[in-house]
Backbone:
């Protein structure tokens, strides 16, 4: 095979080929007159009528040119008919080597139409992106001047093509042996072209050393590359011979058209290219060189196929006189991707019946009087050729599919056909008046060939010439089947299935979504999950979004200030090492739960990473003297890592431990405690924070062979927080300002995601232009975002109209995606809008200008506001760095509480930070990242927690006291009390408040298990609070009906002395019955106790300097948790819009239930509220929701342990199964 190179090829490719062709080289489907014949269809020629025009202007006409020999065609030019209004506006190009079995040329794998002319004189040339090698060219008009007719002059450009061709009959072979073996570094290339009608055969066999070989096999129209030892050359399938399949490439290669194959080998790397699809594989070292052996079956056969393209396609053949003998035989071959479709139908006029032979869900059926169902072991919609044969003789009917490899069905039903019974293939005419053909099934879309009726081949060329039968919407003399799944447009492991006109990607279990499984379902970091309101737990993290790195399951530890990503490895425990004279070193290797590329990406995008490294020693030195070689070292960093000789808490390259840096080592002559070599336990521990040295991959301990040496080490999990990409932002303060970046390359798939906030009602977020193509996202109004683009088919728009105003200066998210199937746009959590791509249109987005952010090249319609976390195809653009050098744009964007402040619950206060926000829980009875985590404690009968108020102050009180300086002169005016409890005790005292004036307020459970609110004011015999003239008590249990009580009294409840939970030590002011109850204390669980701004339980547990006195057994517990502790799960939370997070966020979601916990649940909320004109109850501590623990996993502890798999401690064990839990 010879290849032209250099300038000679370029000059020859421009040579016109049509001008000097003889008249016999031109053919056409028809001609208007002899002066309009195809011989006159030469560019810039005026002979005859000035060009070719067919008799009828429709899409069944064609002009054909025979170039005389195989030619490398590089361009085609068209021109209208001279001096007329006849020209083409669009056309198709077909190529062939034989004048039959035409193949349509497609520009972008899916788009086949070429643009034509706009007048009769201008020559429009189209250069083929991929040159075509063929002898025959056929042009088919698609559209023409609506005020004229089809008219054409044509020119073809290219050069002669010369190659050596070998013909193989299936048993012949060609052996090539080289005399010189190439060196290891030399690339070996084997290239060839092949064509065949057979769908299996051995194409290439190359042998290496030690009986290793590579075999390239055609199997079911696909090329399979096997590595094996030995081969059975007579088999099509080699997998059963012990061969290992390395790669499968291509599809529908048995179409009798030339296909290019190239194998490129360098060392153990091999590239296999079939046509334009390349796959890379690794081969064994024994195949570093090979020898060739070719055996392949190939023959230049003429096969005329017909393509059924759409719902109006059908082929009608007339009946035969031979049918009068009662013998009927019909054979055909078909190939399709559709699961259903009519193959053949005809009427039985004598019996007033109809026969339908149709394909449905991989079965062939013939519903005559009794259905004949044939179930096949293999699919019939696999795109392969399948043979169907129908035979009827007297009282016997048989249907055979795929002969010996298929199945045969028999029935005793005659088919009395007559000459007046035409055969209809694929479908029926669309005319409603047609009584001779009815199709109650789906039409057939696919190809048929080798049609025979009563053993006589059907001449489909005569059908095309309207000399035999009838047809509509067919492509004759070609099979137009396309494999839309090879190469597959489904990304990230999505499974591709197809029909005749489209393909579908199954994204299940891939972690991605969209029409092509392009966009990730998951967030890029724990930081992003936290800002959607998620609490600690396991989440899938996709560090590069739509990029090639797979999602990974990572534990996110959400604290009040940070969102930590915790990546485990195979040994995070403290590991003991004892001395052994038999070995000088002990080594440990650490395998992480994340893959290498995931680790590198996480460390790179995080603001801070750390890993604990601890060494406990007894006569086991660590780094030795500053001048000596280290006994112990570790390997860390990306890839294989590098040897590191510093320890946790020290600086890289320092050869020190933390104590050396702090000058606090046990021996001042050494820089590590362990290097003192004491015969007692010491340790060197600290955090490694140099990201370039993380993670720790292995550890080597060297001083463990001496007698008496003992050591222990611990390498903690890798912990990272902060997401540099998530907070990368720019503020645009002028409409004429913008940022520019290099051209965006998203030819087939493009996804764009960002957040914005603005006070403006319009502006362009992003724009990139091409010569004709463009892509743009803009805020068109205060409630509408528009995603528009053009890939050569004309502009398309996708719009999302929101029910809220988007110019509210809050962060809003935008996600846009465009692929070969559709374009989609999503704003916040609103429903996505989609726009399907044209079925036969351009697919490649061709851009060449700079990418503009926040504006356009014309400096019009600029955006005013902030854009953050802008990601294009998973890559984050560094807006901040570009903003630093761009006038009118500032890096960063402050003000996040307006968007995320609602995540702070239970009186938590949102605090602005440079990157994000945090929840200040000081004024809340709760703790955690969002002040959502209850503070609970288990109480026993002797437990007492007393919060003591200061005595009423005088005029000299110092107003600058401690934060706990709550004075007792406060009054219950518009205040509230709330708490949660769980107990089986009845009666029980829940809360007790007394005053310096021997007044009290008590909340208790009576003997019947009902809640009671009691007040005692000594000057009156009625229970009352009196403020001005009226008082209200609002009492509510869980979701039961609220009860209001109106009390009247002239005495105030003031001078509060103390608030007591549990046992009341001093109860002189109580009556005997209540005093007895108070002395019994409370047995159970209390949680989330609020008394106005006072949090007595939280202060007692977390703030030892608070004015709280605790007596009896008392400790923090998880008894008030919403669900039983389980270390693997997360809580189900709400997004900013108040809707539930989608399942792509937490791995395990909790399930809401109002009847979840043992014994039932009651929440009690008590409010005492007074107002002169209107009474309003204020909730300061919200009701706690509960969750069922059926296949649900509880939340991880958010602080304390570094190991996220440890279970929560201090679970309540004192409560029995019949306990009740209440929330107040």
Residues:
């Amino acid at each position: 095979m010879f290849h032209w190179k250099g300038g000679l090829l370029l000059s020859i490719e421009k040579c016109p080929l049509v001008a000097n062709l003889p008249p016999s080289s031109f053919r056409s489907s028809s001609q208007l007159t002899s002066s309009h014949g195809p011989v006159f269809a030469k560019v810039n020629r005026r002979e005859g009528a000035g060009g070719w025009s067919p008799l009828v202007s429709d899409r069944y006409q064609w002009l054909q040119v025979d170039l005389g020999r195989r030619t490398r065609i590089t361009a085609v030019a068209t021109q209208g008919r001279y001096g007329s209004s006849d020209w083409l506006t669009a056309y198709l190009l077909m190529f062939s080597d034989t004048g039959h079995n035409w193949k349509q040329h497609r520009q972008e794998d899916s788009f086949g139409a070429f643009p034509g002319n706009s007048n009769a004189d201008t020559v429009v040339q189209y250069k083929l992106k991929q040159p075509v090698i063929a002898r025959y060219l056929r042009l088919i008009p698609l559209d023409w001047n609506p005020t004229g007719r089809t008219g054409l002059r044509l020119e073809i450009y290219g050069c002669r093509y010369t190659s050596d061709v070998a013909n193989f009959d299936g048993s012949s072979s060609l052996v090539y042996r080289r005399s010189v073996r190439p060196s290891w570094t030399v690339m070996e290339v084997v290239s060839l072209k092949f064509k065949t009608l057979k769908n299996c055969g051995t194409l290439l066999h190359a042998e290496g050393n030690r009986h290793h070989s590579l075999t390239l096999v055609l199997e079911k129209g696909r090329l399979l590359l096997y590595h094996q030892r030995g081969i059975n050359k007579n088999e099509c399938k080699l997998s059963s011979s012990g061969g290992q399949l390395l790669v499968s490439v291509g599809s529908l290669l048995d179409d009798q058209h030339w296909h290019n194959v190239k194998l490129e080998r360098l060392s153990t790397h091999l590239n296999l290219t079939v046509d334009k699809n390349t796959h890379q594989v690794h081969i064994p070292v024994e195949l570093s060189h090979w020898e060739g052996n070719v055996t392949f079956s190939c023959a230049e056969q003429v096969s005329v196929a017909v393509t059924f393209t759409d719902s109006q396609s059908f082929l009608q053949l007339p009946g035969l006189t031979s049918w009068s003998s009662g013998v009927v035989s019909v054979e055909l071959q078909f190939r399709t991707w559709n699961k259903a479709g009519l193959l053949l139908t005809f009427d039985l006029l004598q019996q007033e019946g109809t026969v339908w032979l149709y394909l449905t869900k991989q079965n062939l059926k013939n519903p005559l009087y009794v259905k004949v169902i044939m179930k096949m072991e293999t699919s019939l919609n696999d795109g392969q050729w399948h043979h169907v044969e129908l035979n009827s003789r007297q009282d016997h009917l048989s249907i055979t599919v795929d002969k010996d490899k298929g199945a045969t069905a028999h029935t005793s039903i005659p088919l009395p056909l007559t000459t007046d019974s035409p055969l209809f293939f694929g479908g029926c005419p669309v005319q409603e008046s047609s009584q001779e053909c009815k199709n109650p099934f789906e039409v057939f879309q696919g190809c048929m060939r080798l049609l025979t009726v009563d053993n006589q081949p059907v001449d489909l060329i005569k059908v095309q010439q309207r000399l035999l039968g009838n047809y509509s919407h067919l492509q004759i003399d070609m099979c137009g089947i396309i494999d839309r799944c090879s190469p597959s447009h489904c990304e990230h492991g999505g499974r591709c299935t197809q029909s005749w006109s489209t393909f579908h990607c199954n994204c299940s279990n891939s972690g991605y979504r969209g029409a092509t499984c392009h966009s990730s379902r998951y967030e890029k970091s724990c930081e992003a999950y936290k800002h959607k309101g998620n609490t600690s737990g396991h989440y899938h993290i996709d560090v590069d979004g739509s990029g090639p790195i797979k999602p990974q399951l990572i534990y996110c530890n959400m604290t009040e200030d940070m969102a930590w990503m915790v990546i485990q490895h195979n040994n995070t425990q403290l590991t003991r090492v004892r001395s052994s004279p038999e070995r000088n070193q002990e080594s440990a290797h650490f395998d992480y739960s994340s893959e290498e590329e995931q680790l590198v990406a996480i460390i790179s995008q995080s603001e801070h990473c750390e890993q604990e490294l601890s060494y406990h020693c007894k006569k086991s030195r660590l780094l030795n003297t500053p001048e000596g070689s280290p006994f112990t070292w570790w390997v860390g960093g990306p890839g294989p890592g590098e040897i590191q000789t510093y320890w946790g808490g020290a600086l890289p390259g320092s050869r020190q431990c933390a104590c050396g840096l702090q000058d606090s080592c046990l021996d001042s002559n050494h820089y590590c405690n362990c290097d003192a070599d004491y015969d007692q336990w010491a340790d060197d521990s600290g955090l490694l924070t140099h990201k370039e040295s993380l993670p720790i991959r292995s550890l080597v301990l060297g001083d463990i062979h001496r007698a008496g040496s003992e050591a222990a080490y611990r390498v903690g999990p890798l912990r990272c927080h902060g997401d540099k990409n998530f907070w990368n932002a720019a503020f645009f303060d002028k409409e004429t300002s913008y940022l520019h970046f290099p051209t965006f390359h998203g030819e087939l798939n493009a996804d764009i995601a960002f957040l914005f906030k603005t006070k403006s009602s319009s502006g362009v977020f992003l724009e990139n232009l091409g010569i004709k193509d463009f892509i743009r996202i803009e805020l068109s109004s205060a409630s509408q975002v528009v995603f528009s683009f053009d890939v050569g088919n004309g502009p398309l728009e996708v719009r999302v109209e929101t029910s809220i105003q988007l110019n509210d200066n809050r962060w809003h998210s935008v996600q846009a995606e465009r692929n070969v199937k559709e374009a989609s746009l999503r704003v916040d959590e609103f429903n996505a809008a989609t726009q399907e791509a044209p079925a036969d249109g351009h697919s490649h987005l061709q851009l060449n200008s700079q990418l503009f952010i926040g504006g356009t090249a014309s400096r019009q319609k600029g955006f005013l506001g902030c854009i953050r976390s802008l990601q294009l195809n998973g890559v984050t653009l560094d807006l901040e760095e570009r903003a630093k050098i761009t006038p009118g744009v500032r890096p960063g964007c402050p003000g996040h509480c307006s968007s995320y402040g609602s995540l702070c619950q239970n009186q938590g206060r949102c605090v602005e930070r440079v990157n994000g926000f945090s929840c200040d829980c000081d004024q809340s009875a709760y703790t955690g990242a969002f002040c959502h985590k209850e503070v609970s404690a288990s109480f026993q009968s002797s437990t007492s927690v007393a919060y003591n108020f200061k005595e009423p102050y005088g005029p000299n009180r110092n107003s600058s006291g401690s934060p706990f300086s709550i004075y007792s002169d406060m009054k219950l005016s518009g205040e509230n009390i709330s708490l949660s409890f769980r107990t089986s005790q009845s009666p029980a005292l829940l809360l007790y408040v007394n005053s310096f004036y021997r007044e009290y307020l008590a909340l208790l459970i009576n003997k019947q298990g009902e809640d009671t609110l009691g007040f005692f004011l000594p000057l009156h015999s009625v229970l009352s609070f009196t403020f001005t003239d009226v008082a209200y008590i609002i009492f509510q249990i869980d979701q039961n009906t609220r009860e209001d009580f109106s009390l009247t009294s002239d005495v105030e409840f003031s001078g509060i002395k103390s608030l007591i939970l549990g046992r009341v030590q001093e109860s002189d002011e109580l009556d005997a019955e209540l005093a007895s109850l108070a002395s019994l204390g409370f047995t159970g669980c209390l949680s989330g106790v609020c008394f106005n701004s006072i949090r007595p339980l939280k202060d007692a547990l977390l703030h030892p300097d608070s004015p709280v006195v605790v007596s009896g057994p008392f400790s923090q517990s998880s008894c008030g948790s919403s669900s039983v502790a389980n270390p693997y799960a997360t809580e189900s939370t709400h997004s900013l819009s108040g809707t539930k997070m989608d399942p792509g966020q937490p791995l395990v979601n909790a399930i809401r239930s109002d009847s979840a916990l043992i014994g039932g649940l009651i929440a009690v909320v008590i409010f005492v509220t007074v107002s002169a004109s209107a009474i309003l109850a204020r909730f300061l501590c919200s009701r706690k929701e509960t969750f069922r623990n059926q296949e649900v996993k509880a939340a991880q502890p958010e602080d304390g342990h570094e190991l996220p798999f440890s279970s929560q401690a201090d679970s309540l064990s004192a409560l029995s199964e019949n306990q009740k839990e209440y929330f107040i």
User: Anything to note?
Assistant: Residues 596-605 form the longest helix (10 residues). The chain has nine helices and 82 strands. The longest strand covers residues 124-144.
